[in-house]
Design goal:
- The chain is of the alpha+beta class and about 270 residues long.
- The protein has 7 helices and 12 strands.
- The chain has helices at about 5-15, 30-40, 90-105, 160, 165-170, 175-195, 200-210; strands spanning about 20-30, 45-55, 70-80, 110, 115-120, 120-135, 135-145, 215-220, 225-235, 240-245, 250, 255-260.
- α3 runs antiparallel to α6 (about 175-195) and α3 crosses α7.
- It binds biotin.
- Biotin binds near residues 59 and 65.
Length: about 270
């Protein structure tokens, strides 16, 4: 049965409180780009765009997310009624949903600030958050998630291959796509429900239990500067707190985070 038919069938039977509508495609440029167009046209909160493959999957910092068959490529459209300052915490909601799902399949993962999900320092999933905020009010947020479930890692370009893994590689067996998708959507519903109830501290505490960033010496590349220091905490909005070698405390809103002890591999 084709992916389109099978996934549409799956979506008819999926039961959840938050996810209302799954829009399924064989292939798209990018599920995030399609979700963004749909959100601008008024797509309702809880709409999900899902594709079997992407031709121009987008990563953070305009990187390409190579998206062959076997991966999960989804974008969730949400319209949270929260202050804009709470939006970054949705990175943690997404990272935790992905991390807990992968762990439920027996693979131990760690989250790297803000939302990379890795196994033994190799990336297994990526998250791209895009939002539209007008006059301080949140119009929509797109949470894009890519997970190397059954991806044949050798199909990825060599430079990405060496830094990536998949559940298939880690478990040496294929995972049922729909079983995995069900688990992921349930985990997302769980963590997003906490967010909607404004249980931000609970989300942060859970993220702290699952990250290996805190305690690491890091180098952060922001859009304007490079900052190095010891990552020692996150603030209530999920911003990273760094202590620089000069003893200053820096709050980082967003950026590319590299661990010093991995820099020679970067
Ligand atoms: C990253 O780690 O750089 C983020 C990668 C995010 C990839 C996902 S795949 C589904 C969704 N659609 C996209 O174009 N990107 C995200």
């Amino acid at each position: 049965m084709s992916f389109l038919i099978q996934t549409k069938e799956f979506s008819k039977h999926y039961k959840g409180d938050i996810i209302k509508n799954l829009l399924v495609f064989e292939t798209l440029d990018s599920t995030n780009s399609t979700a963004k167009s749909l959100a601008r046209e008024g797509a309702e909160d809880g709409t999900i765009v899902i594709a079997q493959t992407q031709t121009h999957g987008r990563g953070r910092f305009d990187r390409l997310w190579v998206s062959p068959e076997g991966g999960i490529y989804i974008s969730v459209i949400i319209r949270p009624k929260v202050a804009a300052e709470n939006v970054p915490l949705l990175s943690f909601v997404a990272a935790l949903s992905v991390a807990k799902t992968i762990e439920s399949f027996g693979v131990h993962v760690r989250v790297k600030w803000p939302n990379d999900v890795r196994v033994n320092r190799k990336k297994i999933a990526g998250i791209l958050l895009e939002s539209e905020i007008m006059e301080g009010s949140v119009e929509y947020v797109i949470i894009g998630i890519g997970i190397n479930v059954n991806v044949d890692i050798t199909k990825l370009p060599l430079d990405i291959q060496v830094k990536s893994t998949s559940i298939h590689v880690e478990k040496a067996t294929s995972i049922d796509y729909y079983e995995f998708l069900t688990a992921l959507l349930h985990q997302f519903e769980h963590f997003y429900a906490l967010f909607r109830k404004e249980r931000y501290k609970r989300i942060i505490d859970e993220w702290k239990k699952n990250t290996d960033t805190l305690g690491h010496s890091v180098r952060i590349q922001t859009s304007t500067e490079t900052i190095s220091g010891l990552a020692f905490d996150v603030d209530p909005s999920g911003f990273l707190l760094l202590k620089t070698p000069q003893g200053d405390i820096k709050k980082i809103f967003s950026g590319d985070c590299l661990y010093f002890d991995e820099l020679h591999h970067a």
